[in-house]
Amino acid sequence: MSASGGTRAIVAALGANLAIAVTKFVAFAFSGSSSMLAEGVHSIADSGNQALLLIGGKKAQREATPQHPFGYGRERYIYAFLVSIVLFSVGGMFAVYEGYEKIKHPHEIEHWYWPVGVLVFAIIAEGFSFRTAIKESNESRGKLSWSQFIRRAKAPELPVVLLEDFGALIGLVLALCGVGLALLTDDGLWDGIGTLCIGVLLILIALVLAAETKSLLLGEAAGVDDVKKIETAIVDGDTVTGIIHMRTLHLGPEELLVAAKIAVQHDDTAGEVAAAINAAEARIRESVPIARVIYLEPDIYSEAEAAKGPDPDATPGGPARPAEH
Prior knowledge:
- This protein starts with a helix and ends in an 18-residue tail after the last helix.
- The chain is mainly alpha-helical.
- Strands 1-2-3 form a three-stranded mixed sheet.
- Helices cover 66% and strands 10% of the residues.
- A hairpin with a 2-residue loop joins strand 1 and strand 2.
- The chain has helices at residues 3-31, 34-59, 75-104, 113-141, 146-152, 157-185, 189-218, 224-234, 270-287, 303-307, and strands spanning 240-252, 255-264, 291-299.
């Protein structure tokens, strides 16, 4: 996923949420609807989240330092994780508390046209933001389903914006239902129930985001397709006859580390091995451009050692395997 695509989706969502937040608080001031208050706080939380994503993207562009030799690419993962925390606490828990209080102490909604009008406007604005996120995601989603895209995406921005916008749209529908039922029945209890449902929805989305960004923070390997491309690029069938074991790790959304122990001929000279390694690195970078940090260790393939299976004490470990011709 390109960083520019994620930035466009973030900016579109930020603009929509700021405009929506203002109208929601105005509607709350005139109507007293707890759903409007919860949705206003939700929009403020979403706006803060988009600001966090933009800050994370900016910080991730810093050059590597002696203290951080692999750069700052994971800043984007850290700020995405902060988004899930903000969504859970500021958005979800506040809405649950507000809904609980409204259920305990319901009151009528005044000036009903304010919340209804704002909710309709918000649905249109959020729909525009969601449409932008979908359009940007489709450029990199390929044939993956939406759930697969969210689980497998290495760049966190688009999945975060997609889930936020999706949650916002569902939340607005819940708020509209709560306000509508409160007006039809003349019972403010429904407004509180709608607010409570919004809170539960936001908490669930926050938990999904936290789980996905946690996986990225821990360190994820390259995708299956990229791993196959790297394996094919390493082996030349001449000097490099096979891969004994290999590990990949995302240092950031657009930076991949590749570490492999490769099998070479036992009678090759040091110069031949060095040339083969340089050639393999060039082929890897051509096949997978984000593979920017590559460490290849030459070794002599041994069928006897391979028969022992994975060595738990090895680094990075993994089973030995013969060359594929």
